[in-house]
Every structure is written in C-alpha cells, then in structure tokens.
Known about the structure:
The structure is a single chain. By secondary structure, this protein is an alpha+beta fold. It has one domain (2-163): Peptide methionine sulphoxide reductase MsrA (Peptide Methionine Sulfoxide Reductase, Chain A, 2-Layer Sandwich), CATH 3.30.1060.10. The protein is built from 5 helices and 8 strands; from the N terminus they run βαβαβαβββαββα. The strands form 2 sheets. A 6-stranded mixed beta sheet has the order 7-6-1-3-2-8, with helices on one face. A hairpin with a 2-residue loop joins strand 4 (84-85) and strand 5. The longest helix has 14 residues, at 102-115. The relative contact order is 0.27.
Amino acid sequence: MKKIWLAGGCFWGMEAYFMQLNGVLNTKVGYGQGTTDRPTYQQVCTGTTGYAEVCEVTYDEKILPLQKLLEHFFRIIDPTTLNRQGPDQGTQYRTGVYYAAEEDKAVISNFINKMQPHYSEPIVVEIEAVGRFFPAEDYHQRYLEKTPGGYCHINLGLVKPDERK
Length: 165
C-alpha cells in the first residue's frame, strides 16, 4: 500500500475519478502544502493559507503502479494552467503531485519530463514532498456520492471499463 497526494482543481471530482480505479483502496480529500494549522474550507478559499485542494490516494502499486496513476492524473488535468482547472481559479486549485516516499520523486519527475513534449506550454505541476495535509470537513468527503449531479469539472467517464474496480 502506498499513498500519493494529488492537486488538480476541485477535489470532489478528483476523488470521484480516482475512486473508480482498480487498485485504489481509499481516498480522502483535504488541504495540502499550506502554512496554517487545521484550515477550514472558507480559509482555504481566501487564497491566503498556501493550501491546495488535494486528494490523498491510497493505492496498491502492484495493481496500479505510480506511472499508471500519473497517466490517469494527466487525463483529467490541464498541466499547463497555473492556479486554475476548469472554471475554478485561485492558488487552491493549482496542480501538484506530493509524495511521501523519496523514490517516488524520480518516477514523478521522469513522467513529467516525458510528457512535456506533448504540450506547447510548460508543465506547471508542482512536485514536492508532502508537507502538511489536513482532511477536509466531513461534508466534502465522497461529496459526489452524497450529492448526485453535484458540481464537477472532471469528466468521470474517462475511466475505461477495464480500468474500473
């Protein structure tokens, strides 16, 4: 079992997308890489806390290697847009990959270097060791399961049938 923290805009859609994947064991949405203790959604939305909306993904690397997980991540983000995904704008909607295992840094960096030629603009995805992570309020967890038809800028249909649980 491994963990990775992904920032890709609104965390509701990120969580719903990754929960569909075979090999993902659990997800938790929250706030990552900021400076204050126990931020609230309202505080993060001000753009003054340094936090991004992040989805913590716990996965089985034997079923879903990190390289494949990153391919999925790039399916649902625009890696060349700074501080915005879809209609969501602000530093809390930046893109990033935050790792705990040092060996993951090379995998992430190599992946992004291989992806760069496919884009005409520079990739602006942060690659950092995970810093602070605080789970979001309960009403944000599994939000799209609790709120069918709720807001989501991510096309959840991009998961192919053979990739699903």
